[in-house]
Amino acid sequence: MKKEVWFQSREQELEALEALKLDDKKRFTVKPVPYAINDDVPEETRVAMEEEWVKTVQDDPWLEEALHILADMANSGSEPNLVHDQKQ
C-alpha cells in the first residue's frame, strides 16, 4: 500500500510542476540510438519505454545545463587546458 501512496503523491507533484511551466517549448532534441531489438519485450512496451525515456531526458534541467556548458566550451574559441601541472 505504501508504494501506491507514493505513486499517487508523485503524480500529484508532477501535475503541480506541469502547472507551473510557463512554456512547453523543447529546448533540445532527444532521439534514441537504434540498437538490437530484444524480441522478449513486446513492441508496445518498447515504444512506451522509449517515449518515457525521451520525455524524461528532454525535461531534465541538469542535462540541459550540461548541454549549455558544452556549447559554451565549444564556442569559446580556446582550447581547454587538460594538462595538469605534475610538479611536486
Automatic annotation (TrEMBL):
Organism domain of life: Bacteria
- What is the official name of this protein in its record? Uncharacterized protein
Which source organism does the UniProt entry give? Candidatus Entotheonella gemina
